[in-house]
UniProtKB/TrEMBL annotation:
SUPFAM superfamilies: Phospholipase D/nuclease (SSF56024). This is Phospholipase D family member 4. Coiled coil: none annotated. Belongs to the phospholipase D family. The keyword Transmembrane helix applies. It comes from Fundulus heteroclitus (Killifish). Residues 184-211, 398-424 form the PLD phosphodiesterase domain. Pfam families: PLDc, PLDc_3. InterPro entries: Diverse_PLD-related (IPR050874), PLDc_3 (IPR032803), PLipase_D/transphosphatidylase (IPR001736).
Amino acid sequence: MSSTYSSLHDNYVSNKGRRTSCVTLAVILGCLTVLGIILAIAVLERPAVPDNHETLPEDTGGINLTDQCSMALVESIPLYLKYKDNATFGIPLEQAWKDLISIASHRVEVVSFYWTLTGEDININSTTDLPGRDILQALGELPSRNVSVQVVTSVPTVKTNSTDLKILKQKGVHVRSVEFGRLTAGVLHTKFWIVDLTHVFIGSANMDWRALTQVKELGVVVYNCSSLARDLHKIFQSYWVMGKPNSSLPQPWPEKYSTNINKQRPLLVKEDNISSSLYIAGSPPSFCPPSRTPDLEAILSSISEAEKFVDVAVMEYFPITYFESPHRYWPFIDDAIKMAAFERKVKIRMLISCGRDSNPAMLPFLQSLASMDYPRHQISLQIKLYIVPVGNQSDIPYSRVNHNKYMVTDKVAYIGTSNWVGDYFVTTAGVSLVISQNSPQSSLDNRTLRHQLKETFDRDWHSEFAVHLGDLGHNPDCALSPR
């Protein structure tokens, strides 16, 4: 071995100039070959990406104290729904959307289950669709301002005569529809906006004129929070890629869709001496990389970690898989609620929506939960139905309903896009924002979003529109009431 090594070494030294050029050339060719192999593998493994905005933003990790994130509740209160004079409300949904459009400088991304921003979409002639028309027009004008607009919607979706997306396409908006029915046997029920990879809206509102004037909605807008926006953008990109023809779910999702922001490692931000930790959860599991906290886990952990109270406001509550046949019992959230009330004596209040189109099959499940309420044994589990009066708006279908999907505990605020029904966490797409906040002085607590959400729940719980199950008499505006 030593003689062979010596001869090679000597030969290299004795022919230094010629050997150097040969070795250099060999090294270069070798490197190019390896680089070519690496690039080929990357191309083969990479999922299809959009023609524009191909690169996902770099994941900067879960800890970031530099973002000046500011959060605010967003609400839509149906017309003619009157509260007491001292009631407080979130930012009007119409204002929040218009503000996001006005500050957009280069990119707007919108995800919505369906689009119906004009009355003609549902064969209705009503002046209450004017705010929806304004939003449609404002979005359509963005490309002329050199602002790229990308929209994702669902297949299947709500059947309407909507021309919204056709109009937007004609004005330069990029639109893709994800065939969720084929991919997961569910729908894309998500609703969010991302503006300039900096500002975010997440909430219950679809791109529907009724969401602005006829339906009670709740969401959150987060300004100047690029770390959160870039993380949500990864979910948007997963939808966008799956919106290509003949797409198939990758198993597993490529690393660039992974996140360092989750329940175990939330994003940390500070504003006005209020520290917040927040993360985005998602569903269904097949659309999430392992690093993304599942939406169901976000709900279950929020309930299990509560020590004093859990307040829930959702449109629908079914501990079953409702949209598949046959139905299956799906007790995960139901069990978590019962355990919190029974074992830890956490006070539970649930505000479930009831409208003309609510499913009466929900009632036995709600009555089962309410039957556990037993103050003598310190078990507090109360349920009310929130009924929006229909009044003279009876000609507008699927309206006059409380569409909220949120929870607030003594620890966290949870604002989501899913009803609490098994299918929404198994096959259907949704997202949620989970926020935990601490302030150094108790006097500052009323400035936290969690406190604002608690006040919103209390306002609705004690309003004339919330009725205990046991006190529900005949009400034509509630399909769950006795006939």
